[in-house]
């Protein structure tokens, strides 16, 4: 049943990629939707350079969110939106410099903020990418942003991202961002696109989200602590692999807490698939952060639904190892991940970060 999961790959650090990535915004497209035409600014929190979306979409109305929802802590991109009261389908066209030979992270953000002042129904609409159904956006709270991210290999030099009206409510968007990735990684079968399910920074010391410029590709890492775990960390530099993970993400890890965890030799977590036909791609990121003595070992195996996914594995001290799905299984309703120490290991398992993606189906599921 889980046959596909047996095909995994491991990428450890390599000498070629030790050099710290250039953190510059070459090839980034950062649109703050709803700001005046031709205007631009550098965001003081991230250092990202945003421009107006005028010229990337035809039509659309600029709006400010309601003053009730404006605050100093709100991301600047959420202060305005572009809305599409006319037409059923309105499309943005992004033309990345690398064309269709590249692979891109594309993120769309929606912060409603009651921009239309008291419309009594929350917006509900579909998002499409290059004619394929991506996801349905259903606003459920005016002050909770929705962010959708996809890793996409375009078939054309230009990428169309469309907002499609479903009912009487009006589609809108707050920000649209594109980042070129190294196209040797995050590669789904047949180059199909993958939508982000979750991206977690396990064991954060600051409890802050991490993104650009700590992450050269502006992936957004959410701090997360599994129940019954302890944080371990290092202040040393960690060698990167091709995934170029942020140092602050890799320098902390979780281990089972022997005091509170009923099974102190294992780390476990699970999720339910949205639809059993969905295919999930897992990316586990590991680095040893503790200098082990000669008598100590940390070795573990990863199981998914009781099938060996990868192992045994013993992450090298201060260098990144990524283990990821090459050929996903499907037909699974609940995924249980269990990372347990091998019998000979003297130390419990650790984990620094994880990313889980879902293959884009491209059509709307029957409801
Ligand atoms: C930015 O990064 C790109 C690719 O990594 C590199 O080719 C370019 O020279 C860098 N530009 C600057 C100004 O550092
Ligand atoms: C940013 O705005 C300034 C001032 O309006 C303008 O001179 C400049 O050309 C703009 N830059 C870009 C890249 O849009
Ligand atoms: C949005 O707010 C800015 C200033 O905060 C104002 O100049 C602009 O006219 C407002 N736009 C709309 C559509 O109300
Ligand atoms: C996947 O994309 C890469 C880069 O765009 C391309 O070289 C390769 O031929 C594609 N593979 C398939 C199976 O489409
Ligand atoms: C790619 O571009 C061609 C020519 O512009 C167009 O006919 C085709 O529909 C596009 N394909 C997608 C998937 O957008
Ligand atoms: C919307 O979200 C905010 C912030 O998380 C919360 O305080 C508020 O209670 C929520 N409103 C509703 C109607 O759930
Ligand atoms: C872990 O982080 C804390 C806070 O930054 C620091 O004081 C401590 O030295 C770190 N531990 C190790 C082993 O580096
Ligand atoms: C992508 O990663 C490979 C393998 O680490 C590396 O050789 C190559 O230079 C990278 N490409 C870019 C554009 O950074
Ligand atoms: C680890 O877990 C798997 C799956 O539950 C189990 O088959 C295996 O015996 C466990 N190994 C150890 C050393 O506990
Ligand atoms: C799952 O997807 C399949 C294929 O689109 C569909 O027939 C089925 O109804 C979906 N199941 C659920 C629970 O949405």
From TrEMBL:
**Keyword Signal attached:** yes
Pfam families, per the entry: Malectin_like
Cellular component, GO, one term: membrane
Which part of the chain is the Malectin-like domain?
31-358
Q: Which InterPro entries match?
A: Malectin-like_Carb-bd_dom
What is the species listed in this Swiss-Prot or TrEMBL entry? Answer: Solanum lycopersicum (Tomato)
User: What is this protein identified as?
Assistant: Malectin-like domain-containing protein
**Coiled-coil ranges from the UniProt annotation:** none
The membrane topology term of the UniProt record is: Single-pass membrane protein
- Location within or outside the cell: Membrane
Q: What UniProt keywords are attached to this protein's entry?
A: Signal
The residue range of the signal peptide is 1-21
């Amino acid at each position: 049943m889980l046959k596909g999961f047996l095909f995994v790959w491991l990428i450890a650090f390599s000498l070629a990629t030790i050099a710290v990535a250039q953190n510059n915004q070459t090839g980034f497209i950062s649109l703050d939707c709803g700001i005046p035409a031709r205007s631009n600014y550098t965001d003081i929190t991230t250092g990202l350079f945003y421009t107006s979306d005028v010229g990337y979409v035809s039509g659309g109305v600029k709006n400010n969110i309601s003053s009730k929802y404006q605050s100093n802590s709100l991301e600047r991109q959420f202060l305005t939106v572009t809305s599409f009261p006319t037409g059923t389908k309105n499309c943005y066209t992004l033309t990345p410099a690398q064309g269709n030979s590249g692979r891109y992270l594309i993120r769309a953000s929606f912060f409603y903020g009651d921009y239309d002042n008291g419309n009594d129904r929350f917006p509900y609409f579909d998002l499409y990418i290059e004619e394929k159904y991506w996801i349905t956006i259903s606003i459920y709270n005016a002050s909770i942003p929705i962010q959708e991210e996809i890793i996409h290999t375009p078939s054309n030099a230009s990428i169309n991202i469309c907002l499609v009206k479903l009912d009487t409510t009006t589609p809108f968007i707050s920000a649209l961002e594109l980042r070129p990735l190294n196209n040797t990684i995050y590669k789904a079968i047949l180059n199909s696109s993958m939508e982000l399910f979750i991206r977690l920074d396990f064991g954060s010391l600051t409890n802050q989200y991490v993104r650009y410029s700590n992450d050269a590709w502006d992936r957004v890492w959410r701090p997360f602590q599994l129940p019954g775990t302890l944080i371990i960390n290092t202040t040393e530099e960690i060698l990167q692999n091709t995934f170029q993970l942020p140092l602050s993400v890799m320098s902390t890890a979780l281990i089972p807490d022997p005091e509170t965890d009923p099974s102190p030799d294992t780390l476990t977590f699970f999720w339910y698939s949205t639809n059993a036909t969905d295919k999930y791609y897992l990316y586990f990121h590991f680095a040893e952060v503790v200098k082990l003595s000669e008598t100590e070992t940390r070795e573990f195996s990863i199981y998914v639904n009781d099938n060996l996914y990868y192992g045994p594995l013993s992450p090298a001290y201060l260098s990144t190892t990524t283990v990821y799905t090459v050929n996903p299984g499907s037909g699974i309703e609940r995924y249980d991940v269990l990372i347990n120490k091998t019998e000979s290991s003297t130390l419990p398992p650790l984990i620094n970060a994880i990313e889980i993606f879902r293959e884009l189906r491209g059509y709307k599921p029957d409801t």
